[in-house]
Task: inverse folding
């Protein structure tokens, strides 16, 4: 039941296992379950963001606004809970709805005004960061006992590790993401739009409404990531999560999703984010290496995966009827007359 | 077989469709019957695509009626067409290459329970659909892992779906080999026997005769006629497609002198490329116009591409002015004094955002290199000269070329090459899609250039044109050269007969 | 003919210039003394000079970005290149005895190598520009930290500091430097055929190939140029703060640069390159920032204003809106003809 679609994600899994195995062999402390559960907890907000980003990238788009959205949602939560005294549950619902609405609006602009996602979500990046500043300029604690409880409860595992609430929430959101991508018509339409948007339209896929829903979903997921981040840090800061959009995009690409769209797995984003986390953990275990190696290593992994994907695309497209994007030969199909 | 007395499944009456400056469909009326393979033929710009796009709801017709089983239908989008049972398979396979066969077949129609897709029953649904077209492949395999032929069959399987009544096959055989075509025809016969109406668009005449019951010919947006396939000879058919009545054609008096003794400029020896063009021999002499005749898809464009080096040939060798030279890129060709106006003006000729002046000067500037910019005064002088000489209609030379009419764009592209003073000019369909005045101008320019000693290789679907100016005609068919007609032998009749053979 | 040409471009070219003018006038009305220039010790001071001074890094990067976007590309890595080149400048000045000009040369070379890397991925490997430059965008700040050893390296060099804050003939030296680079670029693009070739490749790469233009080499050069501009901006920023901050130097500047190009009216899908207007765009961005800061509005409005401007420009530029307006205008004409 395997086909070449799975190659990149298998490669990611292999890289993850190798890195984890290396850590287990080199460092005794690495063998404890604590390392793994910390990995889940520390990277929960990134994984949640990356799951939403997966849908966007599979559809052939990009969402640069996610980092700002996380900060905005955090500051909004703090304002609602601490400032207005709203119960955290209602505050979270309001925040999620707001994030989804903003995502949807970006989707509307992308789909109906036919403007590149890159530049629209870039405007979103500025806008949400600015909105966060409008609400609050400083780092503020979010005081509510529910948040304290949520950040403290965990399900103990063998060893010293334990699944925290945010790790479990993240896993739930991951499962939902995987199910939506693989088991709903919307999910399949996302793949179709990313695979070949003209064909998808001719086959009857409602391209525009699918795009709107994709960006709304990404807004929802980055909103959820914002809440996760708020619980994780217990505070809100308008400068939080700067550059998370890059980490999320890197996670998705390392997870085997093609930036050109159409190919990829939501689960891959989980692995991609974990690989970034594990590189950080290894560097901190090493002690002699510096933190900047993380960025360089992630850049190198990105390059490796992008080149690998290029090779796979090159190989598979040889058999397809469509010309590869960078063909030296001109398209020989004739366009009938100049009418079109 | 077709029973003409039976009411038609689909009839279209007095369909008109205009685009700015073009009358794409001009009062076209046709009928299609169940259990009939109806071939739709015509050259580029005849209106086949437009007609199909009107039937499938991609274009809205300006006027006219579409009647399906006696009831008027309004097809406003592809969903309407699908619901009416009109299904289309295009030459460019319109499936998602990155998805599996099953995902492609069941897209938007997956069996679900509680909103969740049930992949197991989706796969069996896909298998059933594949069985209908006689395919036995793993539904879980990626679409791109199969050959084009199989992908085409999958596209047909999807198109058939549950309630297809009329299947439109738009050039389905363009990239299939003979075994694959036989397989496709087998399927078409089977569907026909089940009562499906099939509209078959192709430019391969052999295939038309092998499979179709009825032939309708379009030309310049008008319906030329509908014929029983068995009662129409190939020569007559080609005559209809090209708009020539063979009995009326006389041997025109030609006053074109022989060019045998002139030196050979470009010589192609067994030049070809796998999958593109079978090896071809061709000699082009100084001051000679060689016409390339053949139907759409016969290899006209491909021969121009290979001669110029726009595509790299993988067989044969080229000789330029007696020297064996590797001419494999446009740059090398330009250095030797070649020039090429491609057929697809919009995508391969003009640079729409740039001005008339910039478009016109580009090839000369490119040959001089980026450092030695042609001074503005010189550019303007050259451009004004050519605007006047080719009577290019533009309000000023700084107007973006995209805003000009097709004919004037074509003249600018022609001028782009004339300023480089080439020894050999290759023109692919130089008169396509342009108005009558510009058409006439361009033919005159071609003759003048030849008299000045330039060699020209001109591909055209207008046989009349070729007869009017060519010293020699190379006839192509099925991506290969079939014959060469020289001097006084050249006539519309002889060319059409060579194409139809 | 010349007259008609200038008339045609009037509306399009004038929009950014008029916006800048209105912005300056508007701010001058709100902020007294905004237009005042004073000469102290032979140096000119004032808010307007301050805007020029602060906008030099953005203007330089936008210059490179305009050329890259003209070829249907984009360069996301310029912020990271700024960090790398700032780090090279700081480390070489602080820890070696090299002549400042050699240090400068090394920094610029580093930027051009980064550009070469991007250009190779785009032109040779055929990777989409967004994806190709993303790699350096992610890894670049790590490389910069590697060079600085994770510290904020401070340095002192009269020569290099003068690039950041010195004066040349009464004007800020960095403004003069940027103006010279911009002038040379404009000259090279307009007085050689390079500008036309780049616009041709961006407008229709297949048609350009058929007339014999070597698009791969051009695209490679364009990214090297963008790296060069980013390197200069990196040196200026490092010289300004007399140190290299690998994490924050040039942060989000790529976005400002893209914004400047978009304000200039260029389409992100290639075609025309508007260098002068791009610089106007960079000035608009800086004037806005300065106006917001000096008018007493909270600084946080800056981002929201920027975002709103991007959205407004995009929506106005979009084909859908243009078509809508066109059909409306036609309908209006028809109805008025009928009357």
Result:
């Amino acid at each position: 039941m395997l086909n070449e679609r799975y190659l990149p994600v298998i490669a990611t899994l292999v890289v993850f296992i190798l890195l984890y195995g290396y850590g287990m062999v080199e460092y005794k402390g690495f063998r404890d379950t604590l390392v793994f559960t910390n990995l889940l907890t520390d990277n929960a907000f990134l994984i949640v963001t990356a799951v939403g980003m997966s849908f966007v990238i599979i559809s052939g788009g990009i969402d640069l606004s996610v980092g700002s959205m996380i900060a905005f949602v955090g500051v909004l939560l703090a304002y609602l809970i601490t400032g207005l005294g709203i119960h955290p549950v209602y505050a979270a619902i309001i925040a999620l709805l707001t994030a989804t609405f903003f995502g949807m609006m970006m989707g509307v602009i992308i789909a109906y005004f036919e403007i590149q996602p890159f530049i629209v979500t870039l405007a979103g990046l500025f806008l949400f960061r600015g909105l966060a500043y409008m609400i609050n300029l400083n780092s503020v604690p979010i005081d509510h006992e529910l948040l304290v409880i949520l950040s403290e409860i965990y399900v103990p595992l063998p060893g010293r590790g334990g699944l925290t609430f945010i790790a479990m929430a993240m896993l739930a959101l991951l499962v939902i993401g995987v199910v939506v991508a693989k088991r709903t018509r919307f999910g399949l339409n996302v793949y179709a739009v990313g695979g070949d948007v003209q064909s998808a339209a001719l086959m009857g896929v409602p391209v525009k409404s699918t795009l709107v829903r994709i960006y709304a979903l990404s807004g929802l997921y980055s909103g959820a990531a914002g809440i996760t981040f708020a619980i994780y840090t217990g505070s809100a800061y308008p400068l939080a999560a700067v550059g998370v959009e890059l980490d999320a995009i890197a996670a998705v690409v390392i997870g085997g999703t093609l930036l050109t769209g159409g190919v990829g797995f939501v689960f891959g984003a989980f692995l991609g984010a974990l690989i970034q986390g594990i590189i950080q953990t290894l560097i901190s275990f090493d002690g002699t290496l510096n933190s900047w190696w993380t960025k360089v290593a992630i850049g190198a992994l990105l390059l490796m995966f992008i080149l690998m994907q290029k090779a796979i695309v090159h190989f598979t497209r040889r058999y397809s009827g469509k010309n590869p994007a960078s063909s030296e030969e001109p398209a020989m199909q004739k366009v009938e007359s100049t009418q079109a | 077989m077709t029973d003409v007395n039976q009411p038609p499944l689909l009839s279209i009456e007095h369909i008109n469709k205009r685009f700015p400056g073009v009358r794409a469909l001009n009062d076209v009326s046709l009928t299609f019957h169940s259990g009939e393979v109806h071939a739709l033929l015509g050259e580029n710009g005849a209106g086949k695509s437009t007609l199909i796009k009107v039937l499938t709801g991609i274009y809205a017709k300006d006027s006219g009626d579409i009647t399906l089983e006696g009831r008027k239908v309004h097809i406003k989008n592809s969903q309407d067409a699908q619901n009416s049972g009109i299904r289309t398979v295009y030459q460019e396979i319109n499936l998602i290459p990155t998805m599996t066969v099953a995902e492609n077949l069941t897209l938007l129609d997956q069996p679900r329970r509680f909103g969740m897709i049930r992949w197991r029953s989706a796969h069996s649904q896909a298998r059933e659909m594949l069985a209908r077209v006689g395919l036995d492949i793993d539904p879980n395999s990626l679409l791109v892992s199969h050959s084009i032929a199989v992908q085409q069959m999958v596209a047909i399987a999807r198109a058939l779906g549950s309630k297809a009544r009329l299947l439109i096959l738009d050039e389905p055989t363009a990239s299939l080999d003979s075994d694959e075509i036989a397989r496709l025809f087998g399927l078409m016969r089977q569907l026909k026997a089940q009562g499906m109406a099939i509209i078959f668009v192709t430019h391969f005449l052999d295939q038309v005769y092998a499979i179709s019951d009825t032939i309708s010919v379009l030309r310049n947006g008008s319906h030329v006629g509908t014929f029983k396939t068995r009662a129409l000879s190939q020569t007559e058919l080609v005559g209809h497609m090209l708009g020539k009545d063979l009995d009326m054609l006389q041997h025109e008096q030609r006053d074109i002198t022989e060019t045998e003794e002139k030196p050979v400029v470009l010589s192609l020896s067994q030049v070809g490329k796998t999958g593109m063009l079978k090896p071809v021999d061709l000699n082009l002499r100084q001051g000679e116009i060689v016409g390339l005749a053949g139907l759409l898809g016969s290899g006209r464009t491909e021969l121009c591409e290979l001669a110029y080096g726009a595509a790299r040939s993988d067989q044969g060798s080229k000789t330029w002015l007696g020297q064996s030279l590797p001419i494999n890129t446009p740059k090398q060709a330009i250095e030797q004094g070649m020039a090429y106006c491609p057929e697809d003006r919009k995508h391969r000729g003009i640079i729409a955002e740039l001005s008339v002046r910039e478009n016109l000067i580009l090839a000369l500037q490119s040959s001089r290199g980026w450092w030695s910019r042609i001074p503005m005064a010189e550019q303007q002088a050259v451009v004004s000269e050519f605007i006047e000489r080719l009577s290019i209609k533009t309000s000023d030379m700084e107007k973006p070329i995209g805003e000009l009419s097709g004919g004037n764009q074509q003249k600018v592209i022609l001028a782009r090459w004339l300023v480089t003073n080439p020894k050999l000019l290759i023109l692919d369909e130089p008169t396509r899609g342009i108005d009558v005045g510009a058409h006439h101008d361009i033919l005159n320019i071609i003759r003048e250039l030849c008299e000045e000693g330039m060699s020209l290789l001109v591909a055209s679907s207008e046989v009349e044109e070729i007869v009017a100016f060519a010293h020699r005609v190379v006839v192509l068919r099925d991506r290969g050269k079939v014959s060469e007609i020289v001097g006084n032998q050249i006539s519309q009749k002889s060319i059409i007969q060579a194409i139809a053979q | 003919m010349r007259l008609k040409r200038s008339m045609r471009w009037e509306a399009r070219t004038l929009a950014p210039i008029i916006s800048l003018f209105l912005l300056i006038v508007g701010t001058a009305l709100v902020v007294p003394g905004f237009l005042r220039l004073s000469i102290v010790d032979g140096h000119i001071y004032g808010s307007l000079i301050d805007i020029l001074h602060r906008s030099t890094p953005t203007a330089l990067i936008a210059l490179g970005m305009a050329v890259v976007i003209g070829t249907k590309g984009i360069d996301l890595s310029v912020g990271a290149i700024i960090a790398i080149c700032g780090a090279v400048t700081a480390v070489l000045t602080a820890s070696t005895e090299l002549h400042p000009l050699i240090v400068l040369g090394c920094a610029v070379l580093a930027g051009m190598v980064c550009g070469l890397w991007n250009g190779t991925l785009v032109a040779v490997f055929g990777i989409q520009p967004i994806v190709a430059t993303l790699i350096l965008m992610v890894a670049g700040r790590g490389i910069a930290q590697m060079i600085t050893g994770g510290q904020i390296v401070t340095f002192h060099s009269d020569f290099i500091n003068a690039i950041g804050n010195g004066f040349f003939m009464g004007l800020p030296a960095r403004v003069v430097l940027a103006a010279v680079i911009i002038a040379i670029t404009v000259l090279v693009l307009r007085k050689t055929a390079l500008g036309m070739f780049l616009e041709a490749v961006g407008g229709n790469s297949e048609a350009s190939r058929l007339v014999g233009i070597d698009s791969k080499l051009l695209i490679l050069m364009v990214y090297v140029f963008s790296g060069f501009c980013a390197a200069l901006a990196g040196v200026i920023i490092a010289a300004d703060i007399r140190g290299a901050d690998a994490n924050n130097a040039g942060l989000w500047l790529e976005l400002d640069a893209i914004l400047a190009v978009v304000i200039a009216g260029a389409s992100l899908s290639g075609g025309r390159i508007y260098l002068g207007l791009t610089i106007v765009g960079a000035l608009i961005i800086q004037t806005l920032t300065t106006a917001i800061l000096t008018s007493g509005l909270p600084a946080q409005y800056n981002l929201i204003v920027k975002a709103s401007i991007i959205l407004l420009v995009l929506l106005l530029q979009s084909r859908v809106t243009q078509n809508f307006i066109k059909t409306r205008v036609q309908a209006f004409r028809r109805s008025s003809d009928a009357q």
In short: Chain B touches chain A through 63 residues (CB under 8 Å). The mean pLDDT of chain B is 87. The CA atoms of residues 57 and 77 of chain B lie 4 Å apart.
